[in-house]
What does this fold into?
Amino acid sequence: MFEDLQQSLQALHDRYRCLNEGSVAAYIPELSKADPDGYCVAITLVDGTQYIVGDQDTQFTLQSVSKPLVFGQALTTAGRNIVTALTGVEPTGGSFSAFEDLDDEGCPLNPMVNAGAIVTASLIPGNTHEDRTKVINDMVAKYTGAQPTLDQAVMDSELRTGDRNRALGYLLKDKGYIEGSVTDALNLYFHQCSLKVNTQQLANAAATLANHGVNPVTQQRAVSTTYVKDILVVMLMSGMYNYAGRWAYEIGIPAKSGVSGAIFGVIPGVMGIGVYSPRLDEYSNSTRGIETFRDLTKQYNLHFLGPDLQTTDHIIDPNT
Ligand code: GLU
It folds into this structure.
């Protein structure tokens, strides 16, 4: 079924490498330094076969793509009862850093928005920042197959401009959703967002979730099979900012997007897809990334509801 994958990826790359809509995120100043024309597409199958086209050496920060991974780590260390008492699983319909992302009690609506991600970061155990970052780095390494490095310039930029995240953190502490130090939780949150990967590593991370939590290239387990569904459900409902509904409707792949221009998508039992291209649309999703996934889902019938339930663009016989 995937014999032609490398040629398909090349054709996709040729099709979209001149799509110049959107702009690179600038609200974290360091991110604006990314080459707007960077573009890379990678796939890792659950048998470990890897495919890639484009800027394969370019590294970028995980940003919000780290959120589902840290959610899984919080589930692993704190357990489902505690984690789901401290963050919901409801889509927000708001911005990823909005105060409206909290319910009437002050509980984050889901772990894919900043509020929920700051809570999951607060659940990572360790006595020092170094202990906690080691837990995160080692976990990310199992997903990607390589020890991640920190982009210190992005981290510093986030620390300088992250007052909204700080405000969310203190609100969460006041409402009882963060137990320990807000500063510790935020420092870990900024750290996880500032870890660098390349696009093949991004695809490997997605393939790990597609492969029940085991990295299909290294055979290392990154997360228990028990928690893979928790992660994929929140990715499907809330992984693509305020485009999540349209994404589920048209593309139908549990996925997570980050403001660096990364998107990773999981086709359970089949493959992981990683796309990097930093020009973002009005929802903060990579413009080339969206188009790349749209074509891939059509070409290979990747929608989670299967090929029998295609959305069509023409009026059809109501009896069929
Ligand atoms: N570090 C970014 C922030 O907190 C992550 C945003 C994102 O990728 O959605 O604003």
